[in-house]
Amino acid sequence: MKDLLQSVAKKITLEIIYQAVDERAKEIHTRIDRLENHFDHLEDDVREIRTEINRRFEAMDQKFEQKFSAMDQKFAAMDQKFEQRFTAIDQKFVAMDQKFAAMDQKFDLINARLDQIFSILANQRK
Predict the structure, then answer these.
(1) End-to-end distance of the chain based on CA atoms, in angstroms?
(2) Is the whole model's pTM more than 0.90, yes or no?
(3) Alpha-carbon distance 70 to 62, whole Å?
(4) Fewest CB atoms less than 10 Å from the CB: which of 80, 93, 114, 125?
(5) Is 126 helix (H, G, I), strand (E, B) or coil?
(6) How far apart are the C-alpha atoms of 60 and 14, rounded to whole Å?
(7) Span 33-76, pLDDT tens digits
(8) 3-state SS string over 78-90?
(9) CA-to-CA distance for 18 and 103, rounded, in angstroms?
(10) CA distances for 26 relative to 19, 29, 85, angstroms
(11) What is the 3-class SS of 10-57, one letter each residue?
(12) How far is 50 from 58, CA to CA, in rounded Å?
């Protein structure tokens, strides 16, 4: 009888231990499920943050692209104005060179005339 009571006491004790372990295992599974749900929400939050960051970077990139494009256009316009002004200056230099060449020809004629006059005067003195 004593063995039977001991056997029954062991079975009851084991049953109580199994129930306690089972309850604890269920609590752990519940906590794990909550953590998994929490991590799923965190992953969603991180995904949303990444999407927002990418969207903002793309918007910034577009703004920079627009500003650089506008600057390129302004520089091109400035370059064109400078080119026009340099062309005008070059044309003025060409015109001045032509005038100087014409003046050189006139001076050459004047010098030639003066040489003739000096030659005539020298011949008349003799």
Answers:
(1) 177
(2) no
(3) 12
(4) 125
(5) coil
(6) 67
(7) 999 999 999 999 999 999 999 999 999 999 999 999 999 999 99
(8) HHHHHHHHHHHHH
(9) 123
(10) 10, 5, 87
(11) HHHHHHHHHHHHHHHHHHHHHHHHHHHHHHHHHHHHHHHHHHHHHHHH
(12) 12
Distance CA 111, CA 7 (A): 147
Tokens of 12: 């009851």
In angstroms, the CA 44 to CA 37 distance is 10
CA angle 94, 97, 99 (to 5 degrees): 110
Distance CA 116, CA 70 (A): 68
* Number of residues written out for the chain: 126
Q: CA-to-CA distance for 10 and 5, rounded, in angstroms?
A: 8
Gap between the Cα atoms of 48 and 55, Å rounded: 10
